[in-house]
Amino acid sequence: MVKKTIHxxxxxxxxxxxxxxxxxxMVHIVGELGAEGAAKEVxxxxxxxxxxxxxxxxxxxxGHSEPPIKMQKVxxxxxxxxxxxxxxxxxxxxxxxxxxLGMDYGGAHVIEDLIRGKSVNLHAISHGTDCYPRxxxxxxxxxxxxxxxxxxxxRNAYQKYNAATNSTKSTIHTYMGSLxxxxxxxxxxxxxxxxxxxxxxxxxTIGTGTRIFLGGTQGYITGQGTQHSSGGGFGTMMxxxxxxxxxxxxxxxxxxxxxxxxxxxxxxxxxPILNEQIAQATAVTDADITTNILDYGxxxxxxxxxxxxxxxxxxxxxxxxxxxxxxxxxxxxxxxSRMIASELKEWIARGDFFVSMPAERLPxxxxxxxxxxxxxxxxxxxxxxxxxVTIGMGASIYDAAKTIMDTDFNHLPVVDENECLxxxxxxxxxxxxxxxxxxxxxxxxxxxxxxxxxxxxxxxxVARRMxxxxxxxxxxxxKGRRVIGxxxxxxxxxxxxxxx
Length: 500
Description:
The chain has twelve helices and 33 strands. It is of the alpha+beta class. The strands form ten sheets. Strands 3, 4, 7, 12, 18, 19, 20, 21 and 22 form a nine-stranded antiparallel sheet that branches. A four-stranded antiparallel sheet has the order 6-5-10-11. Strands 1-2-23 form a three-stranded mixed sheet. The relative contact order is 0.13. The model has no long low-confidence stretch (mean pLDDT 94).
């Protein structure tokens, strides 16, 4: 039975005799020598991952101004940073978007600009106090001008991540990228065989205090990440590192169309091979790691799983869904992940990086819970109007105008001879037709592509769809396309007003 200590491995790092390999290389070594033989042969296995990590940000200390100010609000290049702490400390989050540029620029861009040596504009405001009399401050700073810039990320490097697809008839834009309609593509994230936590799934060497590669410099794990859910194989890490020593090669801002900004971050964790059990764990392959493809077309936290796949299947370029090959693409960079594992290996081999045991291991077999919501989840059926007036597609525009005048509805669902929805006509459509001396039939001017809702949909989801499609009302239909109600933006506003 093989048994080593951290002290022994660090002694070998110090004298240059350490044996260090990447997680990819370890797969073959364990295959040839077995776990016991590999544990004798190898001292450290390096891992790596490079992907979008939204739960990232940096604590900044600007130093005191003259006269001093207690910052209540701080903006860096028009991106707001959190200031609910001491006078001149602020936390810039990666996904906070610009006040002026919106989703085109965010906290991640501020972080990358600082690392690249660029100056950023700081604007701060305060109510003013006797000890901090200044109320407004504007200046320009670089990273070197700040006392500290500590990257402190509450949740990074998921052990594995669900893949994403889309069953709807429209493209949707998510943090998993743009998902094409009708299962047109699958996106996924994670480094598979190189994933740090997948190479030590029992967290025998990973926990608070573990020294790691973070953004091109040495950093530390500071504990379990938020939403750590190791019971389901979705462990995460909270990490910390000095931004001043990081490299733009491993810290990159990104924009996701229709979603916002994020930070691509490189991270690597060395796994000291203390025994054959750890050696066996580091022989994990892409084929050993499974995940679910979830349907992001369902706007719910409980998205249905389309199927289960391995990372080997995902990395092959396509997976089968409903009998056809669907292309896959990674949201992470395996090339960069491989570079990180190799660079960490070189650091250790050169004696520039020593491994450490955690003061406390990450917790096992825990699960993240969903949010407790004290207000009931409002459904369309709760607020829709059920006394809906419809009009036949063969009716005249005069009939439609008279119907609108005789009722309180500005929108008339248009139905066919079977009472099925085929269009919608509004007071605006009628006014426009009359102004153009058009007195034809309803079917000649109705909108045929109708945005609809179902009674069991959540109001928040329908409100989002109204906003996206720029409509103020939706017919509510059943499975047979019969109109059973109408929901309007006014109904939704009244609901939210009652709750505020």
